[in-house]
Amino acid sequence: MSEKRKWLILSYRVPAEPSTLRVRIWRTLKSIGAFYLQQSVCVLPLTSSIQEKAIKLQNLISENHGEVIVLEVEQFSDITEEEMIHAFNQQREVEYAEFIENCNAFFEEIKKETSRGKFTYHEVEENEVELVRLKRWHRKILNRDFFQSHSSVESQNKLDECIASLNHFTQQVYEKEGNKEGDLM
Questions:
Q1: Edge to edge, what strands does the sheet with 67-73 contain?
Q2: What residues does each domain of the chain span?
Q3: Distance (Å, whole) CA 17 – CA 101
Q4: Which residues of 70-94 are buried (b: 16+ CB within 10 A; e: fewer)?
Q5: What's the pLDDT band for 31 if we cut at 50, 70, 90?
Q6: CATH class of this structure's domain 7-75
Q7: pLDDT for 182
């Protein structure tokens, strides 16, 4: 093991009702990339950002009559740490695979519109909205990719291809409409 990491383990118990609190906690933990060891017990690499979010969660749980324990772990055994990193990377691989699948759907949509000669500003706008969604989604996955899983580079390449594909399609629309990019219509 080359670098020493610190970890955060968060264990919580909240009242059964309202269920919205449990869902909120679960969503928050999943959004920051937590790995659940078991129900209501999760682990995260300890960063300043994660620590801030853990404090907010701790306060939320306490304010809602729940119980929470937050442990800072100086180190796991080498094998356990490797297993943790592997588990985190597996979660990201699943997310990246879905993201890449959506990028491929984006390409197919542009290919379909191109083959139909559907070079309209409306199509550009629809695809721009989808590209913004893909960029936001990719950024969220990257923020949770603590250990740079294998698909991180591929996902960035796919996103870059989406951007290039939309730029090319947009240029075709401008040419069809008789405008150059940046010209006033």
A1: 35-38, 41-45, 7-13, 67-73
A2: 7-75, 88-177
A3: 37
A4: eeeeeebeeeebeebbeebbebbee
A5: very high
A6: alpha beta
A7: 55
